């Protein structure tokens, strides 16, 4: 223990408060005050052990000696050599030789730095906010029997000076993490909203296009054919020669209608792929006959067709194959499924 006049101690305490100002993270904060703390409590190793996730984990910010304690971002408190202090079971820990003190050497204790760095004399005091422990201040020395109860009292004053600043840093860090999570959630929500909006617009445009094509082509052709057939029936001229142009016109009309249908993009196909589109149509087609006696045979067919659809899907959505080919495959599969179910 250093023998210092009260005025000198007070100056060092004020120096700690001045040095903390402007520090923006835990590590820089503890390193900025290490020299002033050394004037009050001599040490070879100084660290602040901050509790995380409701006190179940902790991480150490250290200065003087770099140890394995500072390399782990979230070590379990249950394995900490000072777990009794972090849990509030004791008010302080003071040891003349931590290398032989059994309080630091229980089963599962993360004690390796004590042995590797020969940290003999050790003292630990809690850092509390409104009675709740948020961290612990620790000082260690290579020499044995260095610290006394007077050093514990000094360490408590230092802890009281550090605690508000470390609590503010911890709160700011938590607020930053929460803001990041909230921003990511908003971004995902906005992405889904934009995707749904674009899909709705695309579906509406497709609906309008199909409506115009049906009105301008198919409906006009059917109206013209209906008038011709009506005129032929009134005049009694419904002979094979007279109906042949009508048949050709109907064939053209059917071809136009088929082209309109082919150009319509199946939504399930567009959104989820060929395998899912065929499987969706299979579910719809076989909904009423699933309970039939030939169910095992039907399920075998379903599995085979799903496997085939999956293989087709890998090929049809590759960059080398145009989307129109996938549409054709989808329509062919739907037609085959419909015929099979009938």
Automatic annotation (TrEMBL):
The keyword Cell membrane does not apply. Keywords: Kinase, Transferase, Two-component regulatory system. Pfam families: HisKA_3. InterPro entries: GAF (IPR003018), GAF-like_dom_sf (IPR029016), Sensor_HK_TwoCompSys (IPR050482), Sig_transdc_His_kin_sub3_dim/P (IPR011712). One of its GO terms (cellular component) is membrane. GO terms for molecular function: phosphorelay sensor kinase activity; protein dimerization activity. Gene3D superfamilies: 3.30.450.40, 6.10.250.2870. It comes from the Bacteria. Residues 25-179 form the GAF domain. PANTHER family: NITRATE/NITRITE SENSOR PROTEIN NARX-RELATED. This is GAF domain-containing protein.
């Amino acid at each position: 223990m250093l023998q210092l006049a009260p005025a000198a101690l007070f100056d060092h305490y004020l120096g700690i408060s001045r040095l903390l100002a402007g520090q923006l993270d835990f590590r820089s904060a503890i390193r900025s005050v290490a020299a002033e703390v050394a004037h009050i409590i001599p040490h070879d190793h100084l660290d602040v052990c901050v509790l995380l996730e409701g006190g179940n984990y902790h991480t150490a910010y250290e200065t003087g000696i770099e140890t394995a304690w500072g390399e782990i971002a979230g070590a379990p408190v249950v394995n900490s050599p000072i777990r009794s202090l972090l849990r509030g079971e004791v008010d302080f820990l003071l040891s003349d030789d931590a290398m032989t003190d059994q309080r630091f050497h229980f089963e599962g204790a993360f004690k390796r730095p004590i042995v590797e760095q020969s940290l003999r004399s050790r003292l630990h005091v809690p850092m509390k906010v409104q009675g709740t422990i948020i961290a612990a201040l620790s000082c260690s020395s290579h020499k044995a029997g260095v610290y006394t109860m007077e050093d514990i009292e000094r360490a408590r004053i230092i802890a009281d000076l550090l605690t508000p600043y470390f609590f503010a840093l911890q709160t700011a860090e938590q607020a930053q993490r929460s803001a990041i999570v909230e921003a990511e959630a908003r971004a995902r929500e906005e992405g889904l909203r934009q995707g749904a909006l674009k899909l709705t617009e695309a579906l509406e445009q497709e609906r309008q296009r199909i409506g115009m094509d049906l009105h301008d082509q198919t409906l006009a052709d059917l109206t013209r054919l209906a008038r011709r057939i009506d005129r032929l029936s009134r005049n009694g001229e419904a002979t094979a020669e007279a109906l042949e142009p009508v048949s050709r016109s109907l064939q053209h009309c059917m071809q136009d209608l088929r082209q309109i249908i082919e150009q319509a993009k199946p939504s399930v196909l567009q959104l989820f792929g060929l395998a899912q589109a065929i499987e969706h149509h299979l579910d719809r087609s076989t909904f009423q006959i699933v309970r039939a006696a030939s169910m095992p045979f039907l399920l075998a067919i379903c599995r085979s067709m799903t496997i085939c659809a999956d293989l087709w899907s890998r090929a049809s959505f590759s960059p080398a194959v145009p989307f129109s080919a996938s549409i054709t495959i989808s329509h062919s599969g739907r037609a085959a499924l419909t015929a099979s179910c009938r």
